[in-house]
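Researcher: Quick one. two chains, 229 residues in total.
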Amino acid sequence: NAGVTQTPKFQVLKTGQSMTLQCAQDMNHEYMSWYRQDPGMGLRLIHYSVGAGITDQGEVPNGYNVSRSTTEDFPLRLLSAAPSQTSVYFCASRGFSHGTIRANVLTFGAGSRLTVL
Amino acid sequence: QKEVEQDPGPLSVPEGAIVSLNCTYSNSAFQYFMWYRQYSRKGPELLMYTYSSGNKEDGRFTAQVDKSSKYISLFIRDSQPSDSATYLCAMSFTGTASKLTFGTGTRLQVTL
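Model:
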């Protein structure tokens, strides 16, 4: 199993450009999410999805869009990149097991490093 | 004040040492507690998880939760150079399965 696959691994953008970070999982997980990781800030939730066609905002959603047309894919879109969006982005997924510890076991991708100039 | 506080380190120890990593938190509603390990330029991977207070042991790793003090710990016995990584604590509320609150991570270096 590949687990959670993120592309691209590295990207440099100019301010105002748009791009999409891709995330795919092959574990049939219902839940998928995007985090950003910044020094001194830890991992912060951007957007998440509990199933195809359902998305919701996390802690830091501004400047990012998501959609979930299939169970496998959860792309993150930056419509007009800003230097403040320079970060490492992680996609994570998990299956549901209501009310148990397994419900919180996230599997992370390897990350996408984005620099906005 | 952050909901979860974690000393960023770096923490440098010799091979074979016992390592203690800690997090404090402010919200007493947290029920699930996890430790993730993150190697350089990799994604975090789940190392340990516990529910409510108590200890859990897995090989050289022991996770400890003290809810009365809002304090969690991860102990690593007989530390190895391969344990060199950043360790992130994470926690969530009962039933709020969609969101984890992470600490900022402690960078650990185990030297030969």
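The radius of gyration of chain B is 13 Å.
Researcher: Thanks, that's what I needed.
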